[in-house]
Amino acid sequence: MSEHTAGTIDVDDIERRLSFVMRSIDVALALRDRARFHRACALRRDLLTLRAKAVNESGQGSMLDETRQEPR
Length: 72
Known about the structure:
- This protein is mostly helical.
- Helices cover 64% and strands 0% of the residues.
């Protein structure tokens, strides 16, 4: 388990929260609840931004490097 300091969130916490938000989006779609869907999408956007910043600050490299493929 990682060590926490006040006011910080680590990549693992962000991943857990993203998982919850993705389930919330699925529920909103199933219920056809437009307001809930848009709130969850906004939260997902914010969490993805936080994850990108956390990964860059931790020195783990770009998240894009994992999926980027070289042209053949």
